[in-house]
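Please go through the sequence and fold tokens given here and tell me how the chain folds. Record follows.
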Amino acid sequence: MTEHLVTIDNVDMHYGGAGGVHAVSGLTLNVRKGEFAAVVGPSGCGKSTLMRLVTGLHLPQTGTVTVAGERVTKPVSIVGMAFQNPTMLPWRTTLDNILLPLEIVEKHRGRIRRHRAEYVAKAERLLDMVGLKGFGSKFP
């Protein structure tokens, strides 16, 4: 039997509840471990919804999503997603936005608490590399 890394089985997803916008319907997809998959389509066809379902940022109304053998019921720590639009939280500084993933991903929480100064210094170096030196304390 082939091991699937991602299994999406008969998934329906609506935004705004059952009577809202129908994003995907009857979606079924399997991606094997080591396989490369690309999702291509016009704006509004469900590509971002698919990614949000696989990452656990959204949960389907019907059907199941499984990643690495575990049913997705919350955000999945072994996957990441680059959003189409800038997604910075306006109430957090640039630096705090950069460090946010380390604060919310469970396996990194303790490490960032213990070594925050080290992570801040690294983030400041990264800001400098992209021409944003001194912007860590600014709000987006």
